[in-house]
Amino acid sequence: MTPVHSITRSIHLRGRPRGRFALGLSLLLALPALAAEEFPACRERLAAHALAQGIPPGLVEATVPALEQQQRVLELDQQQPEFIQTFAAYVDRRVSPERVSRGRQMLAKHGDFLADLQRRHGVPARYLVAFWGLETNYGGYLGNMPTLDSLATLACDPRRATFFTREFVNALRLMDRESLEAEHMVGSWAGAVGHTQFMPSSYLRYAVDGDGDGKIDLWRSERDALASGANFLKALGWQPGLRWGRLVRLPPDFDYRWAGRDQSAPLASWSSRGVLRANGGPLPGTDVTAALLVPAGHAGPAFLVYDNFDVIMRWNQSQSYALSVGLLADRLAGAPPADYGDPETPPLPIAELKHAQQALLDRGLDPGPLDGVLGSRTRAALRAFQLEVRLPADGYPDAATLNALRADAAE
């Protein structure tokens, strides 16, 4: 009898475990996530936790013993494109002429349905199609990783064990609710599924029946996926009538201390600082607040982003992803292509950024984890350093900033 079967049989026959088993179960539930090489023990923990969360014992018995660790998932988790590509390369690949052309075809194909979704949820068609395009290239690639295996692998990785343990249980709950087979549960390496790549928790809470067949199938129904995306964005706080943001032009003497998502100001204030539309025209005279982003530093493009940009970030916390959604939506609506920098420029090596983070820390500035990732805390520390040495305080590790950090460390 396998350990998983022992657990489920005890709960099923007695209602709740007793004696030494009760102690063992409590210890399993209290254990932190196990290292990847301890996957069998972690698998038992997941079984115990799923049962404690009310997942039917039969479903646990049918799925958990067959779970396999996916080494490829752990590798991909360390190679997310937001962290290893320049902004220009990221956008060039995702807002490509082919994706724009295909997206306009999807707008035409689902025109009436998308218009109805906008009336009901307030989300314009171009944004729903842009999310669809970025997530799966309009259904061209839904992922081929076994969802339960992927989630279990990440649940057994100590870094984000709590989140992925919860998603693993929700995947089982979804299987139970929708009568899905494990073989049907395939998607991204991180456990997202369907045309719009919903995590299991989002599928359970926000997915809706868009085609009226009485089922919710984000894999096979484009309308279910689009309707679910609209429902999700509305729940996240989408503001009808407000765009995501816009590409802007900055004056030569712009003070980059004003940049960052935490520096919101009315459009009138940005106008007074010399910020213009990308075409050189004045900013709108509407009573809207915006924050300025310079994802590639002062030498790259600049964007004013509005409240709906924050909504996009709640869908996916990558700033590059959120900007790409907005830019693709604009292109689908007829905006011309723009220059976001040379996509062939190599990214800053992770090891070099780690050295920069260490140099910042040595100077008394907190860059957050020394992980080689250009996150918000690293950007803030870089901005503080740049102010100290009188460089453009854009929070970006350009050559001048890195050279100044090296010189400072050598003193």
TrEMBL record:
Entry superkingdom: Bacteria
Domain Transglycosylase SLT span(s) in chain numbering: 39-330
Domain Peptidoglycan binding-like: 352-405
Signal peptide residue numbers: 1-35
UniProt keyword terms in alphabetical order: Signal
A Pfam family assignment: SLT_2
A GO term for molecular function: peptidoglycan lytic transglycosylase activity
Glycoprotein is among the record's keywords: no
GO BP: peptidoglycan catabolic process
PANTHER family assigned to the protein according to its UniProt record, in alphabetical order: LYTIC MUREIN TRANSGLYCOSYLASE, MEMBRANE-BOUND LYTIC MUREIN TRANSGLYCOSYLASE B
Protein's name in the database: Lytic murein transglycosylase
Annotated organism of origin: Parahaliea mediterranea
